[in-house]
Amino acid sequence: MEGLERDLEDREAEISDLQNRIDALQDELDSERALREGLADPDNRASKITSKQGVLEQCLGYAPDGDVRIDYFRPLGDHKVAWDFIQFRGWGGHKMRMQFTWEGTDAVLAAPLVIDIARLALLAQRRGESGPIGALGLFFKTPEGSTEMNLHRQYEILLRWIDEEPTARETRAKAQRAPAANR
Q: Of the candidates 104, 126, 161, which is a domain's last residue?
């Protein structure tokens, strides 16, 4: 009888494992479908392209000659590939080209950023700040509350904001939260 019970438990574990695999595949398909449908919507696709072009123009100070494209390639799923092809004039006016290829997975890249944003949002809350926090512009392609697009300057702004002395509001809020015995 013990042998049958063990076999039954083994079969139940296998069924559970298969169900988990099926669920994971369904999640992957749903994610893939969302990506495909998102880029299939002409308004969504146009918005993404306009946003990317705008960032380039703001960073460079001019509209570069060329195309910005976003394509969905099913075999890559959530894995992204960005290819930059840059033409310029080098020493002596000679035409030169530079190419960069970047590959990564959005979810893996976004996770640590989301954690940092959450921690910084808590800091803002403790300081009594609300609404768009311009100092967090570093984390966003089109930041609200800031027009700065230079990554180095955005980083300096963020560091200055983090190091700011506590505001009077934050000091009052801390005093109110402190137990009466500490006052």
A: 104
